[in-house]
Amino acid sequence: MRLITHNMLSCNIKGVTNGFPLRIEAGNVIEKEVDFNPDFIRHMFAKLEWKALVEGARSMGYAELPEDSPDAAVLESDESFLKKLHHALLELHLEEGALVCPKTGRKFPVNKGIPNMLLHEDEV
Amino acid sequence: MKLKQLEGLLGDLEQFSNPIVELEQYPTGPHIASRMLFTAENSYGDITDKIVADFGCGCGTLSVAAALLDAASVIGFDIDPQSLETATLNAEELEVEIDFVQCDITKLELKGQIVDTVVMNPPFGTRKKGADMEFLSAAMKVASHAVYSLHKTSTREHIKRAALRDFNAKSAEVLCELRYDLPKLYKFHKRKEVDIAVDLWRFEPKHN
């Protein structure tokens, strides 16, 4: 699971109103390079939940993203920032670990890169 | 990538080893899958450089097709862990990156407007009544630009009405009618092979 996916996942237990973002417990993280597409990264930026991304990246061992969401000028001029964003979003893979609901503490296990978001009977 | 090439690559994918009839697990053949994704990209620009979600991805045929057509990011969702394992192998085999998530699509909560396009070959509702509508409803909540889906031609009017009236569709269009050849997969199948008429739909949600 990469952070681009994590940025949209939310806890879906019945009664939990704001189960986003899921906290990441990283067991095993691997890195795989993919081609850098600056236009796509610029376009993505506006749709991201920035804090969730920064915290998620930090949990996976990558602390290069700025705490505060930078403004548009940075996107245009600073390629090194775009590359960091690219790396965080698309090149870090959580292979083993868990996603933890911020409200209930319920852990959704991640095995072989796949988070299991299936709910138990008493959670639906 | 040319259509024939895409079709060829998809034809090599691993499919369900022990299909679960209750989930209506049927492989999406390379003929349909390649045409579906090719049309989505060539006629509408909905795949390349886009974030694509595959609902009920099974062994990942549509996900792999999206990745081969250079989607920026592909996420496959399915409830069955064994299919997801096969899907993972398929992605590795074709050297494409796909994130997979195990979940019940009807209970999924996705935040934000990240997903551009949803592609899917959902259950037709022959085992669990209404499953096709549940998938369509879920897809329309998630996609910001378009949903591509396959439904039985016999349900055409019903689907159109539901999409426009209940699922927030700005438009609901049948792009073409295809023959879905289903091989004899389950014990209760009497004929060796059967052909059903399916519609390839394109829906646009209202919010974006």
UniProtKB/TrEMBL annotation, chain A:
Q: Which organism is it from?
A: Camelina sativa
Matching PANTHER family, A to Z? Answer: MULTIFUNCTIONAL METHYLTRANSFERASE SUBUNIT TRM112-LIKE PROTEIN, UPF0315 PROTEIN-RELATED
SUPFAM superfamilies, sorted: Trm112p-like
* UniProt name for this protein: Multifunctional methyltransferase subunit TRM112-like protein At1g22270
Q: Name one Pfam family in it.
A: Trm112p
Supply the CDD domains for this chain.
Answer: Trm112-like
Query: Which family, according to the similarity comment?
Result: Belongs to the TRM112 family.
Identify the InterPro entries for this entry. Answer: Trm112, Trm112-like
From TrEMBL, chain B:
**Which InterPro entries does its entry note?**
DNA_methylase_N6_adenine_CS, rRNA_MeTrfase/Polyamine_Synth, SAM-dependent_MTases_sf
Output the superkingdom of the source species. Eukaryota
Put simply, this protein is called Methyltransferase-like protein 5
Keywords of this entry: Coiled coil
Q: Does the keyword Iron apply?
A: no
Originating species: Camelina sativa
The coiled-coil segments of this chain are 84-111
The record's PROSITE patterns line, in alphabetical order, gives: N6_MTASE
Ranked from the top, the taxonomy reads: Eukaryota, Viridiplantae, Streptophyta, Embryophyta, Tracheophyta
